[in-house]
């Protein structure tokens, strides 16, 4: 049930983003790009199968059986997992998905800031952010 609601939410955000990209105003296009970026990030995280029980932490040398179970808190070996209590075994989730999405969020923020600055300069120079009007001014 939760995956269905999440999938519908992602599809709705992606649809709104696509609708805004097809508008004539540059600011709406930028907002649409940002929404699509967030929808894709949510889709990637949802494929990581985060169920709220598995810790997204993997440290080297914790895989004893290859069954997806990690052993934590072996202080003499220098192994310490901050989420799982001492001596407790837990299954893990691959943290690569979260790392990729975090990187994508940072890159998306930088690109959005750059595009907003360009839109501001266009508005200062031509007095409009309407794409058709800008195309007409070009000649």
TrEMBL record:
<feature type="transmembrane region" description="Helical">
    <location>
        <begin position="29"/>
        <end position="50"/>
    </location>
</feature>
<keyword id="KW-0812">Transmembrane</keyword>
<dbReference type="InterPro" id="IPR050601">
    <property type="entry name" value="CPA3_antiporter_subunitC"/>
</dbReference>
<keyword id="KW-0830">Ubiquinone</keyword>
<dbReference type="InterPro" id="IPR039428">
    <property type="entry name" value="NUOK/Mnh_C1-like"/>
</dbReference>
<feature type="transmembrane region" description="Helical">
    <location>
        <begin position="96"/>
        <end position="120"/>
    </location>
</feature>
<dbReference type="Pfam" id="PF00420">
    <property type="entry name" value="Oxidored_q2"/>
</dbReference>
<feature type="transmembrane region" description="Helical">
    <location>
        <begin position="6"/>
        <end position="22"/>
    </location>
</feature>
<protein>
    <submittedName>
        <fullName>NADH-ubiquinone oxidoreductase chain 4L</fullName>
    </submittedName>
</protein>
<dbReference type="GO" id="GO:0005886">
    <property type="term" value="C:plasma membrane"/>
</dbReference>
<keyword id="KW-1133">Transmembrane helix</keyword>
<keyword id="KW-0472">Membrane</keyword>
<keyword id="KW-1003">Cell membrane</keyword>
């Amino acid at each position: 049930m939760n995956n269905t609601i999440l999938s519908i939410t992602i599809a709705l955000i992606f649809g709104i983003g696509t609708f805004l990209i097809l508008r004539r105003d540059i600011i709406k296009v930028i907002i649409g790009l940002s929404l699509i970026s967030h929808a894709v990030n949510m889709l990637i995280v949802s494929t990581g199968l985060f169920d709220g029980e598995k810790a997204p932490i993997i440290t080297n040398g914790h895989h004893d059986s290859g069954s997806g179970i990690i052993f934590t808190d072996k202080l003499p070996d220098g192994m310490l997992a901050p989420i799982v209590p001492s001596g407790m075994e837990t299954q893990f989730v691959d943290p690569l998905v979260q790392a990729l999405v975090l990187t994508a969020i940072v890159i998306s923020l930088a690109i959005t800031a750059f595009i907003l600055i360009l839109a501001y300069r266009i508005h200062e120079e031509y007095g409009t952010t309407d794409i058709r009007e800008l195309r007409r001014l070009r000649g």
